[in-house]
Amino acid sequence: MAETPQTKLVKFEVLRFRPETDEAESWQTYEVPCPEDWVVLDALNYIKDEIDPTLSYRWSCRMGVCGSCGMMVNERPKLTCNAFVRDLPEPIRVAPLANFPIVRDLVVEIDSFMDKLKSVKPWIIRKIEKDPKYGEYLQSPEDLEYYKQFSMCINCTLCYAACPVLAHEPDFLGPAAIALGFRYNSDSRDHGEAERLDVLAGEDGVWHCSYANECSEVCPKHVDPAAAVNRVKLTSALQMAKILPARSTK
Amino acid sequence: MSAHAATRSSPTRTLPARPPDGFPFAHPRYRWYVLFAATGLPLALACVLLLMGVCALSQGSVGWARYMALMASPPMLALSVATFGAVLYFAIRFLWVGRKIPGVRLGPIPAVSMEVAGVLQLAGFVKLFLLIVVLLSGWLFL
User: Fold this and answer.
1) I need a labelling partner for A181 at 20 to 30 A (CA). Which of A46, A106, A206, B2 fits?
2) Domain parsing of chain B, residue ranges
3) CA of A247: which chain B residue's CA is closest?
4) This prediction's pTM
């Protein structure tokens, strides 16, 4: 674990929780020799491989695509595969994502998020499905461009960890689910807007959002969920006032 | 499915969710957000005072004079200044987030670009602000 000319010894503080032995979480310190080009995930992998094999965390692609390695890094939600060690002040504190129950160490339980995601019906809903032999549903580049930004979400849940509303109202639908609902509502091939609005503008929906904008600040894919939330607010308000009809399967 | 179904119980023993670090006062970004939420307080008080004004109107000239004297007292003037600040901050932050809305398509109306919408919103806000200033000036000085 010594420092070499190519590496720098960096202090990491990692939040640990082992459900079989620990009553509460606690910080554990590690010193990691980090090369210039390492990201926080590389350091966690080093800790697991060379220092402490009991450390648990999620990761997969290492290139900011899968959304598995989201953690609180120095108190901000980040993809650890995207957070360079050289850019962070020491000690680097790594904790599980906020606003989610902790399963073990840096692993959080995302069941609630998956349920919320499912509740907005993130799939194309059609009035009448046509037989595939008649070809695909066509869409213009302009129609694609209209929702493309919101389809870039990788479900990393960083926006949920940053949201101050969710800290107080765990049932709030949350930024990513709303952005995904808006993505399908904005798809020219879809007719399910009215069904989704029941959830999006319902009891735990968009009206709980109070403009913190933290979700958009931390989004690693620049989805801008706050824009989706506020657009859903506008469309649902107009539809409630019967000014704008919602696309419906009925 | 209702989003309420989201809070199902887990078979695994888990630790409760931690709030975002530094929430609500340790980071400037959260302090500004809390301040935004707190703008509701002076606005609520201002509403109560306006209702008191309506009641004073129904009590004739003596009641109205008493109300005017109350409103001219230093604490009430301080509250008015705080209310004005709160409204201004709320409007600025609302427009700051509101600039994201115009990209939406509304039926046959084509989506306006965020840049154009931002300029339009700012122009509308300045116009409204100037209108209020002119009206207040007229009331105060004419």
Assistant:
1) A106
2) 24-101+110-137
3) B107
4) 0.82
